[in-house]
Design a protein that fits this description.
259 residues; elongated; binds zinc ion
């Protein structure tokens, strides 16, 4: 069968137009979903307790009084080192979701977190939202950070947490295909962005939300959060201990659910 050059050109242009249209539509849908979140508080993309498909954990359905403390966006000095002191004082092991560029900036602090026996997770390289992005971009963000974490000497499975807990189609697809654990959370200071709120209020809001199997999200990795994180964490641990909770890493929490 002979296909004319004109016809091949036409089919090629039609295919390119169809792919471009799909990509534009995808970006428009993502943008609309973000607006739903911002203006109507309907959280689809950034909901820490929901993902359209693929395996994820916000909380483990266990009955034991066990919770996992997690810290995002670090390491960030001098706040991460100060936080490590508080965790040591309470003999608590936590899970740190590091951003790759922060590991490069504060490599000694990153090594120290590992040395003290905490679990390390991947929080992307640059902390950009991984929604409406190509698979190539997502892969490079996650794999670059995995390499930096491996260079710290971590040999265990590396859990992942999406920046801003933002995920829609491509990120869950990539995580599922590469068999990565996606760790979201069910407990965080309320409202989420009031850094500098009174320590007692932050601790009380966490203690009120936490249940057996909860994953608690705190931040040591930016200036506003870092300033407060050691005090917040100290108060959070004290309040949760009073309610009978014990602490473990995210992987230990997942294993507790399997046993
Ligand atoms: Zn983050």
């Amino acid at each position: 069968m002979n296909i004319s050059a004109d016809r091949i050109l036409l089919i090629t242009l039609a295919a390119i137009a169809a792919v471009s249209l799909c990509y534009v539509l995808y970006r428009v849908v993502c943008s609309l979903l973000f607006r739903l979140n911002r203006f109507f508080r309907v959280q689809i993309i950034e909901n820490p307790r929901f993902q359209l498909f693929g395996k994820y954990y916000s909380r483990l359905p266990i009955t034991e009084n066990l919770v996992a403390l997690t810290f995002d966006d670090g390491p960030y000095e001098p706040y991460t080192t100060k936080l490590l002191g508080v965790l040591d004082d309470h003999q608590v092991k936590a899970t740190f979701f590091f951003a790759g560029l922060r590991i490069e900036q504060y490599s000694e602090a990153a090594k120290e977190v590992c040395r003290r026996g905490h679990q390390i997770g991947n929080h992307s390289y640059s902390h950009h939202r991984l929604v409406g992005r190509s698979l190539k971009f997502i892969r490079s963000e996650i794999e670059a950070t995995d390499r930096l974490i491996r260079a710290l000497g971590v040999t265990d499975e590396i859990p992942f947490r999406a920046p801003y807990t933002a995920k829609f189609l491509t990120l869950p697809y990539f995580l599922t295909r590469t068999k990565r654990l996606h760790i979201l959370f069910d407990t965080a200071p309320m409202p989420r962005d009031t850094w500098g709120a009174p320590v007692e209020a932050v601790a009380a809001s966490i203690a009120q939300q936490a249940r057996p199997g909860s994953i608690i999200a705190l931040h040591d990795g930016n200036l506003k959060a870092g300033l407060w994180i050691a005090n917040y964490t100290d108060a959070v641990i004290r309040d949760l201990k009073k309610k009978g909770f014990r602490f473990c890493t995210v992987s230990e929490l997942i294993n507790a659910n399997r046993n």
